[in-house]
């Protein structure tokens, strides 16, 4: 069972998320909060596997709340998915740098939410299409002035197939799209991506994209 904490200042949003999570009986809502300041005290009393975090809230916003979670809870113990209607590059980057494992839009379908949770709980990362585009847009607009030689060394350990998958991931494609382009199964794509993340030390796909750009692997 995956224990989940919902954090959003709107009652109807929290109720809607609860309803969507009922699609999967393995997902259990351990609580819901309306204020970012309540999150860390709650987790001290009631540990959860995943926090679904709104960005815009009273008290402190979702980015700061995520940062405070990370000060006490490592990402492999308590995962965080940020939910918002805004897919702006500064918000995406701030959330990821604060330690979020994923970034999804509130306009997603119930199936997309469950799929994102499953991906993150399984050790991956989840980014909505718009969030991925925002992240990639920021990277291409502001490329690193110098290639990170250490990251480039890590990427040299990848097989040609793994490297191809990384470049396609960095271009914003999902597993199904990459699978069609490479004429392999989505499972094979995911396997290559996971192996690449392990080899370069990326905690999720978002960080894999960031590392790829810093190593000079532009799509």
UniProtKB/TrEMBL annotation:
Residues bearing the modification 4-aspartylphosphate: 54
Alphabetical list of Gene3D superfamilies matching this protein: 3.40.50.2300
Keywords linked to the UniProt accession: DNA-binding, Phosphoprotein, Transcription, Transcription regulation
Chain ranges of the HTH luxR-type domain: 151-216
Chain ranges of the Response regulatory domain: 3-121
The protein, known as: Response regulator transcription factor
Organism: Streptomyces lanatus
């Amino acid at each position: 069972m995956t224990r989940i904490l919902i954090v959003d200042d709107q009652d109807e949003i929290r109720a809607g998320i609860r309803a969507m999570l009922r699609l999967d009986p393995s997902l259990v809502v351990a609580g819901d909060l309306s204020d970012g300041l309540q999150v860390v005290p709650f987790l001290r009393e009631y540990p959860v596997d995943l926090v679904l975090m709104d960005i815009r809230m009273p008290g402190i916003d979702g980015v700061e709340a995520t940062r405070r979670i990370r000060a006490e809870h490592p990402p492999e113990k308590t995962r965080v998915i940020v939910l918002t209607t805004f897919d702006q590059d500064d918000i995406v980057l701030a959330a990821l740098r604060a330690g979020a494992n994923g970034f999804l839009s509130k306009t997603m379908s119930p199936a997309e939410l469950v799929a994102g949770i499953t991906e993150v709980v399984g050790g991956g990362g989840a980014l909505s299409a718009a969030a991925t585009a925002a992240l990639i847009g920021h990277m291409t607009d502001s490329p690193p002035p110098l290639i990170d030689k250490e990251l480039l060394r890590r990427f040299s350990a990848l097989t040609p197939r793994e490297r191809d998958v990384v470049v396609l991931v960095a271009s914003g494609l999902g597993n199904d799209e990459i699978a069609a382009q490479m004429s392999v199964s989505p499972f094979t794509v995911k396997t290559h991506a996971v192996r690449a993340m392990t080899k370069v030390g990326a905690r999720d796909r978002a960080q894999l994209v960031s590392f790829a750009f810093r190593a000079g692997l532009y799509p």
